Amino acid sequence: MIRIFLTGYMGAGKTTLGKAFARKMNIPFIDLDWYIEERFHKTVGELFTERGEAGFRELERNMLHEVAEFENVVISTGGGAPCFFDNMEFMNRAGKTVFLDVHPDVLFRRLRVAKQQRPILQGKEDDELKTFIIQALEKRAPFYHQAHYIFNADELEDRWQIETSVQRLQQLLGL
Ligand SMILES: Nc1ncnc2c1ncn2[C@@H]1O[C@H](COP(=O)(O)OP(=O)(O)O)[C@@H](O)[C@H]1O
Ligand SMILES: O=C(O)C1=C[C@@H](OP(=O)(O)O)[C@@H](O)[C@H](O)C1
Ligand SMILES: [Mg+2]
């Protein structure tokens, strides 16, 4: 039985790589944020506004427990999921966990054009965004580094790079 959790900071490529990897493995893909949005009929941004971050984290934990029941699945979590409650330990027990490690410069490049959908980054100017990413990575590193595997995901810019990353991930996981 395969149950893989992809973790890492916002913009690390959890959704992009998770989707491509699951397709290659021919098993279902679940993005935890998408799952939450479908379940609640609201965007992650709306849920943050309505419930605050603490409220979002609670429902995120509950939904993580729900998706972790599925078998033969690739699950991409949101970037914050491993860093709250005992979520990281829980995922380590439930399946194989992978930390998608990406250089802060690459994260910055990806996120400066994709910050609108991410409530935590909205309204940040470039300078502020870069510092914010570096500081957040420092705080979150102790959680991310508990993953079973660490995978460099700096190169996900086109189809060819994504395909190469999928193959590397298969090798890393022995699949
Ligand atoms: N070729 C690209 N050029 C610039 N940005 C990209 C490119 N591919 C993906 N991105 C952006 O980088 C981010 C990383 O992808 P995503 O899979 O959403 O990461 P995660 O789920 O880890 O937050 C996305 O927000 C996407 O918009
Ligand atoms: O890092 C975070 O705290 C968050 C990451 C997001 O997911 P992605 O990592 O897929 O962007 C989403 O869950 C929410 O905006 C909070
Ligand atoms: Mg995502």
Automatic annotation (TrEMBL):
GO cellular component: cytosol
EC id: 2.7.1.71
Cofactor binding, note field: Binds 1 Mg(2+) ion per subunit.
Residues annotated as binding substrate: D33, R57, G79, R140
Subcellular location: Cytoplasm
Keywords: Amino-acid biosynthesis, Aromatic amino acid biosynthesis, ATP-binding, Cytoplasm, Kinase, Magnesium, Metal-binding, Nucleotide-binding, Transferase
Protein name: Shikimate kinase
Coiled-coil ranges per UniProt: none
Catalyzed reaction equations: shikimate + ATP = 3-phosphoshikimate + ADP + H(+)
The keyword Chaperone is annotated on this UniProt entry: no
Cofactors required: Mg(2+)
Pathway assigned to this chain's UniProt record: Metabolic intermediate biosynthesis; chorismate biosynthesis; chorismate from D-erythrose 4-phosphate and phosphoenolpyruvate: step 5/7
GO biological process: amino acid biosynthetic process; aromatic amino acid family biosynthetic process; chorismate biosynthetic process
Similarity field: Belongs to the shikimate kinase family.
InterPro entries recorded: P-loop_NTPase, Shikimate/glucono_kinase, Shikimate_kinase/TSH1
Binding site for ATP: G11, A12, G13, K14, T15, T16, R118
Residues given in the record as Mg(2+) binding sites: T15
Subunit structure: Monomer.
PANTHER family the record matches: SHIKIMATE KINASE (PTHR21087), SHIKIMATE KINASE 1, CHLOROPLASTIC (PTHR21087:SF16)
Function: Catalyzes the specific phosphorylation of the 3-hydroxyl group of shikimic acid using ATP as a cosubstrate.
Gene Ontology MF terms in the entry: ATP binding; magnesium ion binding; shikimate kinase activity
